[in-house]
Amino acid sequence: MGMNVGSEGDDDDVIGVINTTPLVDVMLVLLIIFLITVPVVTHTIPVKLPEEVDQKYAAKADNITLAVNKDGQVFWNEQYIPNQDTLLSKLKENSVKRPQPEVHIRGDQQTHFESIGKVIETVQQAGIIKISFVTQPPARG
């Protein structure tokens, strides 16, 4: 630390220098604290996260494509399904096939979630295991 011990004739002069030594000491202490605590904060349970794979939609003949329009109407491969019971019976017919077909749901962006949820519930009641959602890929520009 620096000290100014006064000199002859300069008693009334104002010292215009800021002593930065305490500031540097505090900053170094904070830096050491952060370096010690950061590894503790970022420590998590080791989990192997799935990697994102961009796959093209492959339409197989045995896959079931269900479309739900914005009014909640359900279509099976472009054929209108009037009610949930009809959908359930058709899905049960297909659920016994081996290998079991996949259900691909295409929901309109403005469809209420309740309509999509009913379709998912019906697919589960039929015993079909694999359900996929078909989405529009983002525009790349």
UniProtKB/TrEMBL annotation:
- Determine if Transmembrane is one of this entry's keywords: yes
Main localization of the protein? membrane
InterPro entries reported in the protein's UniProt record:
ExbD (IPR003400)
Any Pfam family from its record, for instance, is: ExbD
Q: Record keywords: Transferase included?
A: no
The record's keywords, sorted A to Z, are: Cell inner membrane, Cell membrane, Membrane, Protein transport, Transmembrane, Transmembrane helix, Transport
Tell where it localizes.
Cell inner membrane; Cell membrane
Gene Ontology MF annotations: transmembrane transporter activity
| Biological process, per Gene Ontology | protein transport
State the membrane topology: Single-pass type II membrane protein
Database matches in Gene3D superfamilies: 3.30.420.270
Q: Which domain of life is it from?
A: Bacteria
Q: Which GO terms describe its cellular component?
A: plasma membrane
Which regions span the lipid bilayer?
A: 26-47
Q: Which PANTHER family match?
A: BIOPOLYMER TRANSPORT PROTEIN EXBD, EXBD MEMBRANE COMPONENT OF PMF-DRIVEN MACROMOLECULE IMPORT SYSTEM
Main function: Involved in the TonB-dependent energy-dependent transport of various receptor-bound substrates.
Name the family.
Belongs to the ExbD/TolR family.
What interactions and quaternary structure are annotated?
The accessory proteins ExbB and ExbD seem to form a complex with TonB.
Full protein name: Outer membrane transport energization protein ExbD
